[in-house]
Structure formats: C-alpha cells, structure tokens
Amino acid sequence: MTDLEMKLKAEAKRLLDEHLVDVFIGFRKENAPLHPQPAFFTNSDQLDDFVYNNLCQNNLAKFLTRYPHETKIGMIVRGCENRSVNHLIVERQHPRENIIMIGVPCTGIYDWRKITQRCGEEISDVELSPGKITVKTSKNQFEFESKELLHVSCARCSQPNPISADLVIGEPVEPKDPARAKRQVETFGGMTAKARYEWFTHESERCIRCYACREACPMCYCAECFVDHGAPRWTESMVSKAGMQTWHIIRAFHQTGRCVDCGACERACPMDIRMTYITEKLNTDMENEYQFICGMDDKTQPPFAAFTMDDKTRFVA
To answer: What DSSP character marks residue 306?
Structure first.
C-alpha cells in the first residue's frame, strides 16, 4: 500500500469511527487487477480492501445522487470529481454541508484498453510506481511509462487538482496545456460538413444502446431518461441509425454547461466510442459565449439554467 493510500485509508477510518459520515465512497480491490471497483464503506472494519491508484476508472460523484439528502457522505475527489460534486450541489442533488470531500491531486487515469492491447487480457498482476507501470501475465512481464497509458481525457486535463475539497492529500499536479483540450474541437470543426457527419455516423453506428455511458456519467441522474419515455416517445428505442444518432445528440445537448470532461462515459463504453468531442465543443461554446466553466464553484448556475433581467438577448416580453 502506497503512502497516499495509507493516508486516505486513515482519513476514511477517522471519518467513519468519529461518525462524521454515514458512508465513505472510495474504491476496493478486485480479483481483476485492472479494475478496482467503487466501494461504499459504512464502518472502518470494511476498509481492509481499500485501494486508490491510477486504475480507478469511475467518477465517484455519480453515486452522490443515490443517497437521501440527510445522508452524510465522505468521498475521494480528484479534480474532475470535485467539479462534478460542485455542479451537483448547484443542481440541489445533495447539500454541501452533508458532504466531506477528501481531495487527491490527480496524475491521470490509465486506460485499461491500452494495457490489454499491449499485453493481452490474461493479466495476473499490475505494479504501479512513479512514472512507470509493470504488467505481469502468465508468460511475460511488460513495463511502460505511465504517460503512454493515460486516458485521452486525462492527457488533456487542465483541472487535475481539487478546487474546494475539505482536505487535500498529496502535492498539487501541474495542469496540462489548456490548448490541448481544445485541439479535438478545432480539428473536428475544421472538417467539412460531410466529413463531420461521416465521422459522427461512424462513431454512433457502433453503439449497441447499452447506456453504459449514461450509467457512468455523474450528470445523468434523471429518474426516467428521455430514451425510456413511452409517452411521449422522444426517439426510437431499437438499435437503428436514427435512434442511435438521436440518443447521442440529445444526450450531448443535455450535458451543455454540465460536462466536466472526466471521460467516464468513454471509459465505460464497451465499443470504445469517442463522443467527448461533441460535449467538448459545447463546453467551448459555453466558455466563449458565457465565460462559464462547469463546476468551478458550487453556486453558479450554467447559462442554460439561469435567467436574469439583464441578459443580452431578451426572450421574455
């Protein structure tokens, strides 16, 4: 167990033992070494399997909305999770006074697909050290530089550090170049309309409508998603070209001013579909037009959810 893990575990134990929280949301070890799983610790005796490392894929803010408002929640937050929690507080999904955030400056999440592509799927052990990852299989041992394996969202992350955590454990991390985050938007925007549609069609038509992206996203918490509505029916429920394209377009627009670009949707997708270029384009529009970046505090409403009498364009007589 690393020094960081020991400090996180000790803090989780303190919060639970002193009854400062009802549940602590973190990660636990699993038999599959590439896939630590979200865990919900309700007493300190359960912390034996606690783990935290660069293979922890989930955005833990997703689980905030599953608890009643009176539940006192402790949780680990990286930069993207902190911003997600802030925005969920803005949307009144849980009161700030009942959340204790333990912040961890994030050095990035390793893309498990990149590892299995290089090493195969029969992985017996993974060892992580600063700047290096060692992967063991039954027949071979592989070593990689950590930067080779970063998930694409982490490779361009400009907000890796928690911004409003109650306690931060670890040294601040140098943010990535903000221009890199805009590069895929600029590349996509530079295509012809025909080329953009072909790209979108190629990505969306691989979708199997499993909704893993929805289940991984902290901002998808509706009791009934629009794709599940029977009356009125907003889109086809079958796996069809129109249904798949509608799903991806409407879901992206529902994220306008709400997406923190954590990449949880892409990491969860079994078809490895790339769709954050759409939400990142919408994020860029929000920043350019309204000077708004999602989750930078827990009070500011996103532009499409706010109205003031001095708005530039009056739409109410």
So the answer is: -
Q: Is 275 exposed, middle or buried (0-12, 13-18, 19+ CB in 10 A)?
A: buried
Q: Which of 183, 117, 121 is nearest to 152 (CA)?
A: 183
Say yes or no to pLDDT of 29 above 70. Answer: yes
Report how many domains make up the chain: 2
pLDDT-derived band of residue 243, with 50, 70 and 90 as boundaries?
confident
**Within a domain: 35:** yes
Is the domain of 130 the same as that of 269? no
- DSSP string computed for 165-208: -SEE-S---PPPPHHHHHHHHHHHHTS-HHHHHHHHHHHHTT--
| Distance from C-alpha of 250 to C-alpha of 261, rounded to nearest angstrom | 17
* pLDDT at residue 277, rounded to an integer: 84
Q: Identify whether 160 is preceded by a cis peptide bond (ω within 30 of 0).
A: no
**Residue 192 CB neighbour total at 10 angstroms:** 8
Residue 305 contacts by C-beta under 8 Å, 6 or more apart in sequence?
A: 257
Q: Which domain holds residue 121?
A: 112-149
Dihedral angle computed from the Cα positions of residues 147, 150, 152 and 155, in that order, rounded to the nearest 10 degrees? -50
Structure tokens at 20: 């400062």
Q: For residue 313, is it within any domain?
A: no
pTM, two decimal places: 0.91
The 3-class SS string of 99-145 reads EEEEECCCCCCECHHHHHHHHCCCEEEEEEECCEEEEEECCCEEEEE
Q: Provide the 8-state DSSP code for 300.
A: P
**Cα–Cα distance between 210 and 214 in angstroms, integer?**
9
Dmax (CA) for the chain in angstroms is 72
Task: Quote the CA–CA distance of 181 and 177 in Å, as a whole number.
Answer: 7
Q: Is the pLDDT of residue 317 over 60?
A: no
Distance of CA 296 to the CA centre of its chain: 15
